[in-house]
Amino acid sequence: MPSRMRTRLKLERRKMTDTGLYGSVYEHLRTYADRLDRSLIGLRNPDSNIVKHARMEIAHLLREVIDGNSTNPATRFVSIILKQDLPPVTGKGLPLCESLANTLEQRLPDLNELNQLEQIAIILDKECASTLARMKGRG
Amino acid sequence: MIEPYLEVAIRQAQERAKLLKTKMPQPSRATEFVALQQLCENRIDEIIRLLDYLLNDTTILSKELIKERIRIFRRTIGELSQLETSAITALNRVHDDDIFLNKLIFQIHKEINFPLSPPTVTCLSRDYFSINPALHLLEVPLAESEFLLHLPDLYHEIAHLLIATTNNPKVESLQQALGKLLFEVAKHFDKERMINLRATGPTEYFSHVFDLLERFWIPWATEICCDLFAVFTLGPAYAWSHFHLTAAHGGDPYDIRLNSFMSHPPDHARMETMLIALDLLNFRSQVTDIKEKWEALVKSIGAEQTPIYRRACPSQLLQQAVAYTLDGVKNIGCYVVSETTTGMVHDLLNNAWQKFWVVPDQYPTWERETINTLKQMANPRTLGQR
Question: Across the strands, what pairs with B138?
């Protein structure tokens, strides 16, 4: 969500707790964020097989997000989040995910591309944190 | 710089995790809580292992991975905190009312052919009904086991488990139904944005509005899907329960607040969707009855539909939600209700609402007697006096 919009958001008065509602979303987001972080760690492993596996895993995760036909709720959640949150960060939106996926299928990312992957991981981590806060009624 | 802090914080989290194991009483107070206890112990072990990894793995200790290390650390602490404040607290304070509701939820699980194991129920909610899918723990308010009219919400809560479960082919069809709905949502708002680009007027403002509405729909789609699961497996009692909740605790049922994050869809959109679903199941006379009373409620609140309401909750999306969810519920093997459905909890909750409307003055006595009888059947030691 654009930051100017986020700053305007205030905690709404709830008549129901949000544990279940955000719990469902959180489980999917956290699984996705964990897979991405584990793969980013894998990219720095000295074992070339682990590096290759991590590279392909990230490409696969990104392909899922840009797949317009996917009916997996996790990728649909992530897709909406990245579509809105990536532009202010990178100026490229969802097409950036596609370009990074193409690169990772061919070769290791360079420093600039690693930074872009890092931005995606940060956005997802922030979303996990705010979803968890909403689960606890603090959102 | 931050590494020394992180090392101590991780070790302390490990100590806390171990200590939490001692807070779960042994032997278990009731068989209904054994599964939750085992789950908590397993989770604590996983957390300790993960913290070990963050402390000792040679790759993660590299300086360039500090961001990844902190992200994983924080998410792990979040999980530990959730365990401590909900599941372990519930295990630490088991009550007879919890046991009664656990028996009831087990009966629901059998009656509707629920494809996952039933959650554990605790009466320790500090607010309304809610479920923690990761812990398989359903929380209800302290006195809820003494009343019937809100219990239909149990059906809604267990649906969250179906949505949140990962890597389980038994529930994939329902998850795909939600995925299809979210796809339609994205398509709808992309189209709205395109139209907005060509429009005159405050296009930048509307561009923000559409971003916000699309974002709201992430939880809204989930919530509507769970509402529909409850309608499809229980029937009209769930719509009545929504009426009851809105009448007693709701605000303006058409309200769309763009200055706050709306976690739940507007109450009217939820009721609209439920009525479409009940109509599809041929509960025609009940639809007429619920609609009539709902309109009277809305009128008495003084609420009116606003233009932004329909932009946020287009009828087409609500109808698609009903069609996709019905397919999903059928495909995961749950029994879809009809006028001829019978079952102990199904009959109890639907009859309760019928009695409430037909003989309101007799309802409180009937409810008390019914609950007392059920509690005695569930646990002979409990006299269930209130």
Answer: B121, B131
